[in-house]
What we know:
Blueprint: E1 6-9, H1 15-23, H2 33-44, E2 46-50, E3 55-65, E4 68-76, H3 85-99, E5 104-110, H4 118-128, E6 132-137, E7 149-155
The protein binds coenzyme A.
Amino acid sequence: LTTELAVRRLATDDIPAAVEIIRGLPDYFTDDVPAQIERDAQQHGGWVVTTPKAVVGVAVVERKAARAAEILWIAVDAGSRNLGYGTRLLRTVLDRLATEGVSVVEAKTLDASADYAPYEATRAFWERNGFVLVDTIDPLPGWQPGNPAAIYVGALSVTVAGRAEE
Ligand SMILES: CC(C)(COP(=O)(O)OP(=O)(O)OC[C@H]1O[C@@H](n2cnc3c(N)ncnc32)[C@H](O)[C@@H]1OP(=O)(O)O)[C@@H](O)C(=O)NCCC(=O)NCCS
């Protein structure tokens, strides 16, 4: 099944499908998020994972600096979760970012201290893909109160002393 998957850059035409995926996950995304992802996708771009029939997942990625990126949003269609699509999308995005010279990738999600069950699987997803929890910030500017932020970082290349400005 996963051999039929393809990952490609998000095109403007994909944005409505991305918004629908977000709308289909109300336990994860409040109703202000569809408009945010639309804006972020236009501004920063991203990637989609597709089957021959449909866009089944989306990642919106902001380049924060030459060697740093943040995965602003990642989501897989509610009916297609836990089939490996998100992992395939994330691995491809990280490979492409590494090729482009990115060495660290940030992802923010809901911290365990919020005690909200749906996000247990989300944190497990980041951790199984090698991301490391480096901080919990509450409140995080821009996030609604009562949503402690878990800050995850993935390293795509090692930091070598004295070679910071390669
Ligand atoms: C997080 C998300 C992008 C992952 O994509 P996905 O296609 O569902 O994930 P995958 O199928 O690649 O991997 C899911 C893995 O989590 C595991 N898993 C599922 N629920 C779990 C749980 N409660 N605890 C631990 N592991 C869990 C699955 O067994 C699977 O592991 P495996 O690869 O070892 O078999 C997707 O589920 C999603 O859209 N979630 C809701 C939105 C969201 O949380 N987005 C991220 C916001 S930061």
